[in-house]
UniProtKB/TrEMBL annotation:
CDD domains the UniProt entry points to: RWD_ScYIH1-like
Main location: cytoplasm
Gene name linked to the record: KNAG0I02530
Protein's name according to its UniProt entry: RWD domain-containing protein
Family (UniProt): Belongs to the IMPACT family.
Gene3D superfamilies: Impact, N-terminal domain (3.30.230.30), Ubiquitin Conjugating Enzyme (3.10.110.10)
GO biological processes: cellular response to amino acid starvation; GCN2-mediated signaling; negative regulation of protein-containing complex assembly; regulation of translational initiation
Any single Gene Ontology cellular-component annotation: cytoplasm
PANTHER family, alphabetized: IMPACT-RELATED, PROTEIN IMPACT
Gene Ontology molecular function, alphabetical: actin monomer binding; protein kinase inhibitor activity; ribosome binding
Location relative to the cell: Cytoplasm
Amino acid sequence: MEADREQLSDELEAIEAIYPEAITDKLPDSSIIHVKIPSHEYITVQISFPAAYPTEKPPNVLEVAVTRQTEMDLFEPKYLKNLFQEVMDSVFHQGEVCLFDFFVELDGILYVEDVDTSVQDLGTISMDQLIPDNPFEGWYASEPISDRGSTFMAFATHINSEEEAFQKFDIIKTDTKMRKANHIMSAWRIKVPGDNGKELIVQDCDDDGEAAAGSRMLHLVNIMDVWNVLVIVARWFGGTHIGPDRFKHINSTAREAILKAGFERKK
């Protein structure tokens, strides 16, 4: 436990050196800190460090606050708290400090989408015109989710090799309606034979311009513990920022498509 406290102390010193004004308050034993998210200082987070951090347990996100009025409609604190804890859990590895990686991952999640002035107003387009009616053979689709002009829809399929993943992905992107999507994010994971009869894990993801989306989808595939799966999420962007809520829709549709494809979440 004493070694853990020393690692935590060293980590916080490093964070203060890299981000001099990020930590705004902390308890004398550093078990709880208040920190402004670097590059997104209008969001403050209260974090606690268990006695077994970093040997066994990750930090806990206790509270998230949005302090700038212009972002209050974009970032909902309760959802951010759950999302931040999910990010913290994903970057934590037993025996290693993770606060810097946590900040790096959040930078991608909290970025505000650039408005593409060429994007058409999706409100004037019917769902039938936007959504592929019948995904290619072997693909399973989620129900579409629409939010403030953006529409999200996921598709999942079974794969047995890296080559098959690329091939199936390339084919589905030839669909006329899919080509109108602003982002087609993807994640896949397979087991392949390795040396001495051992299986190797091969996995990858792609944001397609939606920063941090691919890694969140791959994290979802990992926590669902499903294999030989390729999942993609298409987003048709209507020009309105929706902040981190986009990750809620990406994960929700991806999970639905994976389950519809017959992959069972391991207990």
